[in-house]
Amino acid sequence: MIFLWAFLIGGAFCVVGQLMFDVAKLTPAHTMSTLVVIGAVLDGLGLYEPLVKFAGAGASVPITSFGNSLVHGAITELHRDGWIGVITGIFDVTSAGISSAIIFSFLAALVVRPKG
């Protein structure tokens, strides 16, 4: 049953993103930023963790999870280290993902030639 919920919740995030493209005519950058903010707001309200427990990868894989990671790391470090933790928590939680994206993008750029 967890696979069904993961598929439905993850698909719902994708439908929202696609509607932003098609109906609202937002650019990919605006759509991606909006989805990150939605994930951040849901985590700030304490709603994202129950969603991840319910939907599993359907909620932890999409771009909204990045917003969740940003806020979750900031809040966790705020409680542990005070106000400086707001900044360090963001870097602590998201640094591996951002570093991997940069490294793999660079490697892909070395291998693939753009058309044009």
From TrEMBL:
<dbReference type="InterPro" id="IPR005562">
    <property type="entry name" value="SpoVA"/>
</dbReference>
<keyword id="KW-0472">Membrane</keyword>
<keyword id="KW-0812">Transmembrane</keyword>
<dbReference type="InterPro" id="IPR014204">
    <property type="entry name" value="Spore_V_AE"/>
</dbReference>
<protein>
    <submittedName>
        <fullName>Stage V sporulation protein AE</fullName>
    </submittedName>
</protein>
<keyword id="KW-1133">Transmembrane helix</keyword>
<feature type="transmembrane region" description="Helical">
    <location>
        <begin position="83"/>
        <end position="112"/>
    </location>
</feature>
<dbReference type="Pfam" id="PF03862">
    <property type="entry name" value="SpoVAC_SpoVAEB"/>
</dbReference>
